[in-house]
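Problem: given the chain below (150 residues), write out its structure.
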Amino acid sequence: MSKSIRMALIVLFGINIVLMQSSFAQDVVSLRGHMEIDENSKAPLHKKWQQDRDPITRDYVQQPPLIPHNTTGYKINLKFNKCLTCHSWANYKEAGATKISQTHFEDRDKHVLANVSARRYFCTQCHVPQADTQPLVENEFEPLQAISGR
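Solution.
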């Protein structure tokens, strides 16, 4: 096969891939809906958060605990962390809250720190509150029996 024929086939193959990708992209709908990128999207509907309750059972090993209460308005920034007002080792008993894990006082090299590690300070990176909503997709996940106690 000559060089020019190979080059023509490569170009045709590339054009075919681009056309296929653009037809797939037309079927994709983002959470913003069909809006141009420079348009402002509508504010999301308010979620109906679950009522304060006992800790939520974990579904798998090493799962970060889910937050069993509403966190709307909680401030977490470099100078203040609302979560620590109840969950710190100094306050958890009085607040009746779960104390933060010892692992939150370790750096990435497992050195024990006097304060919460910078990597663990922003709680909502891993811990999330639960809303009373229908699932977005079908889910047939079953937790391990050792974790669920079933």
